[in-house]
Automatic annotation (TrEMBL):
<dbReference type="Pfam" id="PF05161">
    <property type="entry name" value="MOFRL"/>
</dbReference>
<dbReference type="InterPro" id="IPR025286">
    <property type="entry name" value="MOFRL_assoc_dom"/>
</dbReference>
<feature type="domain" description="MOFRL">
    <location>
        <begin position="334"/>
        <end position="433"/>
    </location>
</feature>
<dbReference type="GO" id="GO:0005737">
    <property type="term" value="C:cytoplasm"/>
</dbReference>
<dbReference type="InterPro" id="IPR037035">
    <property type="entry name" value="GK-like_C_sf"/>
</dbReference>
<dbReference type="InterPro" id="IPR039760">
    <property type="entry name" value="MOFRL_protein"/>
</dbReference>
<dbReference type="InterPro" id="IPR007835">
    <property type="entry name" value="MOFRL"/>
</dbReference>
<keyword id="KW-0670">Pyruvate</keyword>
<dbReference type="Pfam" id="PF13660">
    <property type="entry name" value="DUF4147"/>
</dbReference>
<dbReference type="GO" id="GO:0008887">
    <property type="term" value="F:glycerate kinase activity"/>
</dbReference>
<feature type="domain" description="MOFRL-associated">
    <location>
        <begin position="17"/>
        <end position="250"/>
    </location>
</feature>
<protein>
    <submittedName>
        <fullName>Hydroxypyruvate reductase</fullName>
    </submittedName>
</protein>
<dbReference type="InterPro" id="IPR038614">
    <property type="entry name" value="GK_N_sf"/>
</dbReference>
Length: 444
């Protein structure tokens, strides 16, 4: 999986860190997650603890989108076979599906082809009747890939807004609160359009804490945020939306545009959402690999969030404490954390992403021999073409240059120059970031 692994294995600790990363990404593979949650016996489709009698439906369709939607859909095609009528998904990388149409879209900024494919999905959903079972697949990346500008908004309005929110270091839940109110699909609106069909939402989480209404901006989930909440996001982070977006949100706040459906909306009477995989799934697999290698795993959290360069410091401090006192874990050990850190861009737009900033900041702050690695499980850290990085204090030889790179949001350039970036290419899944800190045996 790690294409440049041979150049990264500088020590046994590096080897363990890379093994943990590969295991984490493998465990979050969409086909694995789907088959663990969904099975079929005859005409009975079982999703977790719920059963669906396929004989009650004249049509079974799969719609949705996200970076891992292709893998989920391929698994569904295999499980359902000739019971599947068709459907349409939007993915970032081309995928070979048989019955369900797949379209390639753009991420992280929406594009014309995203809008065109989403319009077809909405048409498919609106044609669903009472005897239709809609399997709605939603994974990380869907907020951009599923794009349906609301009202008089344009694609350019969505692109500009998304870019400003991402560059402003806004957490994903608040970004999605805005997206829901600029869309004809998000914030429970696909459920409203699908009624009276039966809808089973199949969600692979890329959201810290697994709030279903935040994953992909919650098209099949009730929305408790409002137009006023969306406006508050811009005020809170001192950002200015495009004029059309400002006008649209103010019109919604003033009651001129209907709100997204709340939990008591009848649109959800025949909708059930299922979480088929998340960050904890990846961390559990990494912990098992660490233990097999003779290291004591300690899972710190799957809810990591905050500014990447700052979040790294307390984690490496825990590694230092472990080395010095054997607390909270006795070395050799592997500290594991996952979640979604952010980067507030203050430089001139250098290379990198949250995981690369995490690793460089951690290596600069660390006073010890631990190996620090972090990746985005989708294989693309921020807007870069690498998954993340791996480093220890010894490879950061020019500390002044490293600090300058970090301050300029150019961690990627420095880490690339010293051969510390991790390259996987697109992995086909997305369950947030995984950080691994390997603390060597103090007796060695």
């Amino acid at each position: 999986m790690i294409r440049n692994r041979a150049t990264l294995t500088a020590s046994p600790e590096h080897e363990v860190a890379l093994d943990c990363i590969e295991a984490a990404v493998d465990a979050a593979a969409p086909d694995v997650a789907t088959r663990s949650a969904i099975s079929r016996a005859g005409e009975t489709l079982t999703i977790e603890e719920t059963t669906y009698d396929l004989g009650n439906y004249s049509d079974v369709v799969v719609v949705g989108g996200g970076k891992a939607a292709g893998g989920v859909t391929r698994a569904l095609e295999s499980i359902l076979s000739d019971s599947l009528s068709g459907g349409h998904i939007i993915v970032k990388q081309a995928v070979d599906t048989e019955t369900v149409r797949s379209s390639v879209g753009d991420h992280p900024l929406p594009s014309d082809r995203n809008v065109e494919a989403t319009a077809d999905i909405l048409e498919t959903v609106e044609e669903a009747g009472e005897d239709t079972l809609v399997l709605f697949v939603l994974t990380g990346g869907a907020s951009a890939l599923l794009s349906a500008p609301a009202g008089d908004l344009t694609l350019d309005d969505l692109q500009t807004t998304t870019d400003r929110l991402l560059s402003g270091g806004v957490p994903i839940a608040e970004i999605n609160a805005v997206r829901k109110h600029l869309s004809d699909l998000k914030g429970g609106q696909i459920a409203r359009r699908a009624a009276p069909a039966t809808v089973a939402g199949l969600l692979l989480s890329d959201v810290v804490g697994n709030d279903l209404s935040t994953i992909g901006s919650g098209p099949s989930v009730p929305d408790e945020t409002t137009y006023a909440d969306a406006l508050d996001v811009f005020d809170r982070y001192d950002l200015t939306p495009p004029p059309a977006v400002q006008e649209h949100l103010e019109a919604g706040r003033d009651g001129e545009i209907p709100e997204t459906p709340f939990p008591d909306d009848p649109a959800f009477d025949r909708v059930t959402n299922y979480l088929v995989g998340d960050n904890a799934t990846a961390l559990d697999a990494a912990a098992a690999v660490a233990q097999d290698a003779g290291y004591e795993p300690l899972m710190l959290t799957s809810r990591l969030r905050g500014e990447a360069r700052e979040v790294a410091k307390p984690l490496v401090a825990i590694a230092e404490e472990a080395t010095a006192t054997g607390t909270p874990v006795e070395p050799p050990a592997v500290l594991l954390a996952g979640g979604e850190t952010t980067v507030t861009v203050t430089g001139d737009g250098g290379q990198g992403g949250p995981n690369q900033e995490f690793v460089l900041s951690g290596a600069l702050a660390h006073d010890g021999d631990a190996v620090i690695a972090a990746v985005d499980t989708d294989g693309e850290d921020g807007s870069s073409d690498v998954a993340g990085a791996i480093a220890d204090g010894t490879v950061v030889d020019d500390r002044e240059r490293a600090r300058e790179a970090l301050l300029a949001n150019d961690a990627g350039s420095y880490l690339s120059d010293i051969g510390a970036t991790i390259k996987t290419g697109p992995t086909g899944t997305n369950v947030n970031d995984v950080a691994v800190i390997v603390v060597p045996d103090t007796d060695e």
